[in-house]
Structures are given as structure tokens and as C-alpha cells.
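>> received
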Amino acid sequence: MSHTASPNRAPGTPRSGPCAIWVNQPEPGQLPQGVVHRTFHSEAHDADVGYCVYLPPRYDVESDKRYPVIYNLHGAGGNELHGFDDVTVLDAGIRAGRWPAMIMVLPNGGMRTFYKDSHDGRFQSETLIVRELIPHIDATYRTIDDRRGRCIEGHSMGGRGATRLAMKYPSLFCSLFNLAGNVPRTAAQFDPAASDAYPNNYLGPDRQAYIDNDAFELLTKNLRAIRGKLRIQIWCGTRDTGHLATVRDFHQALVAAGVDHTYLEIEALGHAKNPIIDLYRDIWFDYHVESLRQAVTPEDQREQNP
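>> returned
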């Protein structure tokens, strides 16, 4: 049964810091076509956690078919009741025959956690997504339950989190879409003299935690598993001054590492998501679809067409 949890906030953390309401009930009529709200139990938090899932048309009819999954991560301050604009575009495209049928999952990663595990154990958002939610989705729905059928994306904090998780666990995903998500050099932010300031009050006193949560360091560490295997798409508006600098920095790191990727700066647009969707809705999921197509090996094709 769904329930609403009380906010979880670390002592001394300002109101703009990490917190979570793990189950958020949708209002009547709020969920788009094909979307349901569900919960699962997180052992890491000892609490039920909400998520929304979009199931494509004919999911209930074609009972022997398995589907690829897109994990759409919300931005700072969000929860599982987000991403409905993406779902609406996806559903319309599937019904029009533009894209193949896919599942989309809208997780709840907590507010301003950046999808990281905190050193004190209060917020285990990486564990929640990677070790709990993904296995739950694969066990509950008819998914293609490996990297060949799994994409990850997000806007703002969601894009930042999706990028770091894809760099840390490249074997889980075939496609990444970072829409205007900062990609900071987290290892450089370690400052033991500022223990009460973010990220030190979140990642803790051990410098290794900062290295382990740095997308640049993870790119270098996991380069053999990323290059030529994980397709990466990064977009940001030219007026998104709060995010463009680190996005450009990561783009240059990918270039230097020889990682083929798609990079787009959208002229005259800022951080708002919907104006970007409005410009590109007809191709919004083309990149993931092509990633999924390329992830199918010749052996897979032989199995599908004996």
C-alpha cells in the first residue's frame, strides 16, 4: 500500500539541501495516458518508495513481448511525479509509428541528492536506482533486462545523475541523454576544512568518495567499457549559464578520450526544458532508438530470426 513518508533531512542541512518524500500520490487526472503510479520497498531506506511507469499500447495484449526501458531521472526538488512531458511525447510517437514500443520509468531519487549515496547512509539514491529499482523493474515488467535494452536520461540534476551513473555503471546502459545537467569535477571539490558545506557534508571526510563520484575520473577508469559501447548525447542551451560551462568541459573530456558522442548547444535557449522539447519533439527519442538498434549484436539477430 502506498503511503506518504515524512521528509528525511540530515541534521544541519539547509532547506535547500538533500531531503526526500519517498512516496508522492498523484492528483486525480494527473497521470498521462499509459502511466501508473507504483511503490516498492527499499531496503537501503527501510521505506516504500514511489515511482511511475509508462507501459506502451498493447503491452497487456502482447504478453510474450519484451520491451526496452528508458529511466528518466528528475531534477532538483522533483520526485516520481515528473517527466510527464517526456512520456506524452513518447506515447504520441509510438502511436504514430515513429518509435518502437518502449517502457519509461520515472524514479524518485530524492530532492537535491544528485543521485549519490551520502556517507552517513541517510540518502542512498545511487543504491536505490542501481541496486534496487532497476532489478525491481526487470522482475515486475517484461523488460529487455540488460544493457541492450536499457537507456538513462535526465534534465538538470537528472542529467547530472544520469551521466555519473552511466560513467560508473556503463555495462548497465546502451544510451545516455544528458539534457542541461552539470558535470562537475567532484574530486576537485574535496575540502576537509569545509566539512559543513556541500559536497563535504554529503560525501564525507574520505577523499576517495569524491573520486568515486566524479564523472571525469569514472570516464578514465571505465573508458574501455564506455568507448564504442555506450552512446552519449549531451544538449544544453547557450543561455543556460549555470550549466553550460561544466557541460562544455565534459564534452571536451569525451573528445580528448576519443569517445564518440553527440553534442548540441541550442542557440538562445536557457535551462527550461519544455521550450527545448517543443523544438525537437519529432526526434526526441531518435537517439535512444538508434542506440537500442546498435546494441543488438549479430548473435541477437540470429536468435530473433532463426
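>> Residues 45-304 form a domain with the Rossmann fold fold (CATH 3.40.50.1820).
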